[in-house]
Amino acid sequence: MNKISYGSNGSVSSIFAAGKPWIYPAQHNTAGVLRGGIPICFPFGTSAELFNWPRHGVLRDTDMVSQKYANKQKYISKSIPLRYLRHPDNDSKKDFRVDAEYGYEFVKNTFEMTVGLKQINSSIFEPVSLPSNLGFHPYFITPYDFREPSRATIVKIGDQELSFHQRQIEECSKSKYFMLPKSGEVEISIPLQGTIKMKLKGFTCVYVWRDSFEYICVEPVETPVELFNTERGSWLPYSKDGEFKEYKMSLTFIPVQ
Fold first, then answer.
1. Whole domain around residue 154: which residue ranges?
2. What angle do CA 229, 9, 98 make, to 5 degrees?
3. Fewer CB within 10 A of the terminal residue: the chain, N end or C end?
4. Three-state secondary structure of 227-248
5. CA 246 to chain centre
6. Can you give the pTM of this predicted structure?
7. In the chain, how many domains are there?
8. pLDDT by residue (tens digit) across 168-221?
């Protein structure tokens, strides 16, 4: 039986599928820092000199309204305020408002989440874009194999294959990004757990890091943080026709046999 739990902010707190848990449950660690679940981060990667929102944005701290339909779950939040302290158009303050919608669906052992964003308040006569860098932040459980401590979690991103030893923590605590292949596919093989096949749309890279042997984070992000708020980064234009910009992630869980 598949089971998902959600937080008041509409993000996933935990996932149980194919007879086992796959997402490290959202909780505070011994240092009081929140870890776990699948937080939705927007705008991801910011500067306090330019914006009035935290480094991982405002969405993960925004309460959402829940709507449930059979095996589908939806969350909505309207008119989320964002202040840009020094917009590049004229180096002045600009206030934005964004509508957000989250959709979740679980069919067999495949979980799919969709996020839609819409900028709603730019002047019709002078539309202004908002720097847009959405990211998902899944914490995948990595059980420790005491019988074979040399085993490693393998992350495949296109032609790249990354290996993370069970005891490899400190050198992985600084996240690094890797560009996605055109297919948007990533594969994560975890000892004692199984394989997670990740399929992405709306993202160009993934960040990989861990600060605990209990989980590993493989985070799809719209553009590398270094490109945020630049011409090469992504922007959320005023949605004159009311259309949402969409981001999707599907996770297929294949337990070890």
1. 3-255
2. 40
3. C
4. HCCCCCCCEECECCCCCCEEEE
5. 13
6. 0.89
7. 1
8. 665 565 678 999 999 999 999 999 999 999 999 999 999 999 888 899 999 999
